[in-house]
Structures are given as C-alpha cells and as structure tokens.
Design brief:
globular, alpha/beta, single chain, 2 helices, 7-stranded mixed beta sheet, 109 residues
Length: 109
C-alpha cells in the first residue's frame, strides 16, 4: 500500500477540500480526529485501493456531528443535519486505527 499526502493549514481547509471532491449530493461525510491530526483517507485507485491519499491538518475535533458552511468557511458542532445548503461531517475518534497509524508513520518517515 502506498500513501500520498496533502497537508492543509486549517481544519476549515480540509473541510473545503473534502466538500469539493465529494460525490454530488453527498451531504454527510466522515472525518477522523486521531493522534493530533484531523484527516480523511481516500483511495486514489478505487478498484485496487493500492494508493491512498491522506488529506490532513494538525489539530483535534471532538466526536460528533459538525456543520460546515462553504461560503463563510466556518464550522460548528450540531445535534442534527438541519440545512440542505450546508455540508456535515461526522467526527470519529478511533481508539486504534491501524491504517491511520501506517499513514502517519509513512508521513513522518
């Protein structure tokens, strides 16, 4: 497995990137907060899964649902999907994430 990386300066920039590459009408997306990074790992080779891209920034988010407004580049925790004109991220904080550990090791290595 090979990893590619795109580092961003802020969590908002990671959200903006993910919204721009998400399939049309995909309003809720997962994102991970793990070991000091907020990230998403997406396959660049969807059929084989051999090349994965880690889109990340340094930081931390609390688990739960986050609403992101593209026009203002702002996010806030919410309890439900409330608006069709916003994008939502489900923040996951895994206890152990072997794929993320492998990506972090490759990034630092």
């Amino acid at each position: 497995m090979k990893f590619e990386f795109e580092e961003f300066a802020t969590i908002e920039d990671v959200f903006l990137y993910l919204v721009s590459v998400a399939p049309y009408m995909k309003q809720v997306m997962p994102i991970s907060s793990y070991k000091g990074y907020v990230f998403s790992i997406v396959p660049l080779t969807p059929l084989s899964g051999e090349v994965l891209m880690m889109i990340y920034t340094k930081g931390k988010l609390e688990p739960g649902l986050v609403e992101f407004d593209v026009s203002t580049k702002k996010f806030r925790p919410v309890s439900a999907v409330e608006r069709a004109d916003r994008n939502y991220f489900i923040v996951l904080t895994p206890k152990v994430a072997t794929l993320a550990d492998e990506a972090i090791k490759a990034m630092k290595g």
